TrEMBL record:
Record InterPro entries: ACOT13, HotDog_dom_sf, PAAI_dom, Thioestr_dom
Classification via Gene3D superfamilies: Hotdog Thioesterase (3.10.129.10)
Name of the molecule in the record: PaaI family thioesterase
EC identifiers of the protein: 3.1.2.-
This protein's UniProt keywords: Hydrolase
Class in the EC hierarchy, top level: hydrolase
Lineage: Bacteria, Pseudomonadati, Bacteroidota, Cytophagia, Cytophagales
Domain Thioesterase: start-end pairs: 55-130
GO molecular function terms attached to this record: fatty acyl-CoA hydrolase activity
CDD domains linked to this entry: PaaI_thioesterase (cd03443)
Alphabetized Pfam families for the sequence: 4HBT
Stored SUPFAM superfamilies: Thioesterase/thiol ester dehydrase-isomerase
Family named by the database record: Belongs to the thioesterase PaaI family.
């Protein structure tokens, strides 16, 4: 068993996120690409059930990807208490079609005692910026567990 949450996530590189404790994360079904302290990259294949009527990645699905990966990045910090999203801002800059692989790349901007600020870039295989998001996470009174 890994010694930390970060080490656990690092042991999952190349594996699907299908065993997430979050049902939404299971549905998104990303694959861990890179995990470092305060940073994470997860890839996703855009499926038909993730698209809007135009056949491109739905903004809600893109927002869910951004929020979920930022949440995992915060969880991997190994804080004593669980942090939850209290704000989420997403800018949609381009689109992704069904079948495309996209990447959510996160970075902790500020790691505070009660508030953590994180940013995420959603890109395609050509590294074209599709969306970017920022979020604040606040500490709860719920103890963290692996």
């Amino acid at each position: 068993m890994p010694d930390s949450i970060l080490e656990y996530f690092q042991s999952q590189i190349g594996k699907s996120v299908e065993k997430s404790s979050a049902s939404l994360g299971n549905w998104l079904n990303g694959t861990f690409v890179d995990v470092k302290e305060g940073e994470m990259t997860v890839s996703f294949v855009v499926r038909k059930d993730m698209t809007n009527p135009l056949g491109i990645l739905h903004g809600g699905a893109a927002s869910a990807i951004i929020d979920d990966v930022m949440g995992m990045t915060v969880y991997a910090l190994g804080k004593e208490f669980v942090y939850v999203t209290v704000s989420l801002t997403v800018d949609f800059l381009d689109n992704a079609k069904e079948g495309e692989t996209i990447y959510a790349k996160t970075r902790v901007v500020r790691n505070g005692k009660t508030l953590i600020n994180v940013e995420c870039q959603l890109t395609n295989e050509q590294n074209k910026l599709l969306a970017k998001g920022t979020s604040n996470f606040v500490a709860t009174s719920i103890k963290t567990s692996l």
